[in-house]
Write a structure and sequence with these properties.
- The protein has a domain of 162 residues: Serine Threonine Protein Phosphatase 5, Tetratricopeptide repeat, CATH 1.25.40.
- The protein is 33% helix and 0% strand.
- It is built from 13 helices and no strands.
Length: 242
C-alpha cells in the first residue's frame, strides 16, 4: 500500500496563491503593514511578485505608508518597477499619498525623474497633492523643470494645488514663466486657484502680464475667478484692465 500524499499547501504556496486579481497574501500583508510577520522568510524576491495590474507588495506598502519596515529589502529595481496601467513606480505611489519621507534614505535624483505613462515624475505626484515639503532638500532646478505630457512642470502642479511656500527659495523667473501646452504658466495656475498670495514676494509685472494660449493674463484670470484681491498688496494700477 503506497503512502498517503500530503496535498496541503506549504506556507510558501499559501503566500503565493493568487486571488482573481492576482493578489497574493504578500500583497495583503503589505497593505496591512504586516510583512515583517514573515520574519526571516521575507526577501526582495518575494517583494517583486506582481498582481494582474503589475503592482508588487511594495506598491501596496507605498500606498498605505508601510515602507519603513521594508527599507532593508528595497533594492533599486523594486523602486523602479512600474505598474501596467499607469506606469507608476512605488516611488510615484508614495509621492502621491504623502509617504515619500519614508524613502528619504534611498531617494536619488534618478528615482525622482522616472516618468509614468502621463509623463509625471514622483515630484509631479507629490506637488499635485501638496506633499512637496518633505523632499524640498532634494529638489533641484532640473527636477522642478521636468515636463509631463501636458507640458506641466512640478511647479505648475504646486501652483494649482497651493503648495508653493516651501518652494519659494528655489523658484526662478524661468520656472514661473514656463508655459504648458495650453500656454498657462504656474502664475496662471495660481491665479485660477486663488494661490497668488503665496507668490507675492517673487511676482513681477512681466509674470502677471504673460498671456496664455487664449490670450488671458494671470491678472485677468484672477479677476475672472474672484481672486484679484490677492494682488492688492502689490498696488498695481487698474489691475483688471491689464
Amino acid at each position: 500500500m503506497s503512502p498517503a500524499i500530503n496535498s496541503d499547501p506549504t506556507p510558501l504556496e499559501q503566500l503565493l496563491s493568487p486571488d482573481a486579481k492576482g493578489r497574493t497574501e504578500l500583497h495583503k500583508l503589505a497593505r496591512e503593514g504586516r510583512l515583517t510577520d514573515l520574519g526571516d522568510s521575507l526577501s526582495s524576491a518575494l517583494l517583486s511578485i506582481k498582481d494582474l495590474a503589475g503592482r508588487t507588495p511594495v506598491h501596496y506598502a507605498a500606498h498605505e505608508g508601510h515602507l519603513l519596515q521594508l527599507l532593508p529589502f528595497l533594492e533599486y529595481s523594486l523602486l523602479t518597477e512600474p505598474d501596467y496601467r499607469y506606469g507608476n513606480t512605488p516611488v510615484h505611489v508614495a509621492a502621491f499619498r504623502g509617504h515619500l519621507y519614508q524613502l528619504l534614505p534611498l531617494l536619488t535624483a534618478a528615482l525622482l525623474k522616472i516618468r509614468n505613462h502621463h509623463g509625471n515624475t514622483p515630484v509631479h505626484q507629490a506637488a499635485s497633492e501638496g506633499h512637496l515639503t518633505c523632499i524640498v532638500p532634494l529638489l533641484t532646478p532640473d527636477l522642478l523643470g521636468q515636463l509631463n505630457n501636458k507640458g506641466n512642470t512640478p511647479v505648475h502642479a504646486a501652483a494649482f494645488k497651493g503648495d508653493l511656500l516651501a518652494l519659494l527659495p528655489l523658484l526662478t523667473p524661468a520656472m514661473l514663466t514656463q508655459p504648458n501646452l495650453q500656454g498657462n504658466t504656474p502664475v496662471h495656475g495660481a491665479a485660477f486657484q486663488g494661490n497668488l498670495d503665496q507668490l507675492l514676494s517673487v511676482l513681477t509685472p512681466a509674470m502677471l502680464l504673460a498671456r496664455n494660449g487664449k490670450g488671458f493674463t494671470a491678472i485677468q484670470t484672477a479677476a475672472k475667478f474672484g481672486h484679484l484681491h490677492q494682488l492688492s498688496p502689490l498696488r498695481l494700477p487698474a489691475l483688471a484692465d491689464l
